[in-house]
C-alpha cells in the first residue's frame, strides 16, 4: 500500500514511554552548552573589566605624574624614559626603551644625530621649528632627519615632539625643572649641561656614535663628508685658529661628532668627573681646562677642532655659502633674539638656494645676521684658558 508523502518519521511512532525517556536526555544535552555559553560570557566580561581597570589605573598614574613633574633632565643614569616611572622593572625597561629609539634611528654603522629640547624651545614657531626646517631646505640634509633623535627634557616638549618627529624620547629627574628657558651660567643651566655630558657618555656605552647638535644650529649642508673618519672626538669652535689640531682653539660643546669606543667613553667619564675640580663652570669651560691634560694622551684620544669656514656661527660666521654646513646662534643670549636672527638666516639661505647654480658660484653673498644677537654679544662670556682654572689638573 502506497504511503502518504507527508508520513511522519518512524521514531515519532515509538511508544510514549520511549519518548518520555528520550526528551529529558535531549533537554539536558541542549541545556549543557547553554550553561557553558553563559559561563564564558561572564568570564569574558570579568576579563574585560580587569583589562579596562588596569588601563585606566595606569593612565591616571601617568597624568598624575605629568602634573607633578613639569620638568626633566639628563640623569647620570637614565632616570625616566617615557612612559611610566615607578614600575618594578624600571631601569632595565628604561634602558631598553632608549636603546630601541637609538636603534630605530641609527645608520648602518650605528651613528645617530642627537639634540635636546625643553618646553621653552618646543613652543610653536620657536627654535625646534627652525631647526627641523633647516634640515628640509638644506643641501642633502632632509634624509638625515631619519637619524635624528630628539631628547626632550619635560613632558610638554615630548608631546610637541611627537607631533613633529618620529624619534622622540623624554628623560626626567625628580625635583628638577628644565621646562623653562635656562639662563646662561645659572645653576639650572649648569646642571643641564652636565647632565647632557653624562647622558652622551651612556649613548657611547650603548655602542652608538653620535653627532650632537644644539637645536639653535641650522643644518644647511650634510656635514658628514667634512668629518675625519679616523678621529675620535671632533668639536665645533667659537673661534678657530686655522689649525684643526691646535689646542688653543676655542671649542663649543653645542656641536660635536664622537665615535663610540673605549677612548671616548673614558674621555666622557673624565670630562664629567672634572666638574668637581672646577665648580661653577660649564662643560665647555671645563673642556678648555682639561684639553691639555696628560690624561688625554694616556687614554689615546684623538681630538680635532672643526673649521668655522664649514661649521660657523654668530661668533665667527661661515662666509662662503658654497661651503657652509652649519650655522650656530652662539655668542647670543635669549631665545627671542635667537629665533629672530635664525629666521633671517634661513631666509638668506632660501634666497641663495633659489639662485641658478652659475650665480651661486660666481656671486658673493653675506649673511644679514646677527641683528638682535649683535646687541647682546657683549654679554657672552670669554672662554677661560687653562691658566685661569681655579685648580690644577
From TrEMBL:
Keyword Kinase annotated: no
Membrane topology, as annotated: Single-pass type II membrane protein
CC per GO annotation: Golgi membrane
The species this protein was found in: Saponaria officinalis (Common soapwort)
Principal location: Golgi
EC number: 2.4.2.-
Subcellular location: Golgi apparatus membrane
Pfam families (alphabetical): Nucleotid_trans (PF03407)
Name of the molecule in the record: Glycosyltransferase
Amino acid at each position: 500500500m502506497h504511503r502518504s508523502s507527508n508520513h511522519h518519521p518512524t521514531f515519532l511512532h515509538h511508544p510514549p514511554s520511549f519518548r518520555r525517556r528520550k526528551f529529558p536526555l535531549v533537554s539536558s544535552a541542549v541545556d549543557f552548552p547553554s550553561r557553558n555559553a553563559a559561563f564564558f560570557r561572564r568570564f569574558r566580561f570579568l576579563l574585560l573589566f580587569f583589562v579596562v581597570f588596569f588601563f585606566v589605573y595606569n593612565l591616571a598614574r601617568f597624568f598624575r605624574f605629568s602634573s607633578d613633574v613639569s620638568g626633566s633632565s639628563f640623569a647620570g643614569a637614565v632616570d625616566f624614559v617615557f612612559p611610566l616611572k615607578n614600575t618594578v622593572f624600571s631601569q632595565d625597561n628604561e634602558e631598553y626603551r632608549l636603546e630601541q629609539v637609538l636603534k630605530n634611528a641609527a645608520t648602518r654603522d650605528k651613528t645617530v644625530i642627537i639634540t635636546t629640547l625643553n618646553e621653552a624651545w618646543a613652543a610653536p614657531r620657536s627654535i625646534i621649528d627652525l631647526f627641523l626646517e633647516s634640515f628640509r631646505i638644506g643641501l642633502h640634509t632632509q634624509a638625515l632627519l631619519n637619524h635624528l633623535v630628539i631628547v626632550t627634557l619635560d613632558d610638554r616638549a615630548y608631546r610637541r615632539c611627537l607631533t613633529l618627529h618620529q624619534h622622540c624620547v623624554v628623560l626626567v629627574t625628580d625635583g628638577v625643572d628644565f621646562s623653562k628657558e635656562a639662563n646662561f651660567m645659572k645653576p639650572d643651566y649648569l646642571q643641564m649641561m652636565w647632565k647632557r655630558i653624562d647622558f652622551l657618555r651612556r649613548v657611547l656605552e650603548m655602542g652608538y656614535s653620535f653627532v650632537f647638535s644644539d637645536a639653535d644650529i641650522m643644518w644647511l649642508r650634510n656635514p658628514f663628508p667634512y668629518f675625519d673618519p679616523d678621529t675620535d672626538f671632533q668639536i665645533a669652535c667659537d673661534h678657530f685658529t686655522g689649525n684643526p689640531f691646535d689646542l688653543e682653539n676655542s671649542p663649543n660643546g653645542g656641536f660635536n661628532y664622537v665615535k663610540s669606543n673605549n677612548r671616548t667613553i673614558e674621555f666622557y667619564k673624565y670630562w664629567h668627573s672634572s666638574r668637581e675640580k672646577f665648580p661653577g663652570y660649564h662643560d665647555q669651560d671645563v673642556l678648555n681646562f682639561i684639553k691639555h691634560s696628560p690624561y688625554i694622551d694616556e687614554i689615546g684620544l684623538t681630538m680635532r677642532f672643526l673649521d668655522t669656514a664649514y661649521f660657523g656661527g654668530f661668533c665667527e660666521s661661515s662666509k662662503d655659502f658654497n661651503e657652509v654646513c652649519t650655522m650656530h646662534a652662539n655668542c647670543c643670549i635669549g631665545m627671542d633674539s635667537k629665533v629672530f636672527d635664525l629666521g633671517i638666516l634661513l631666509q638668506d639661505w632660501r634666497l641663495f638656494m633659489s639662485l641658478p647654480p652659475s650665480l651661486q658660484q660666481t656671486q658673493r653673498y653675506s649673511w644679514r645676521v646677527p641683528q638682535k644677537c649683535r646687541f647682546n654679544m657683549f654679554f657672552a662670556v670669554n672662554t677661560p684658558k687653562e691658566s685661569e682654572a681655579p685648580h690644577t689638573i
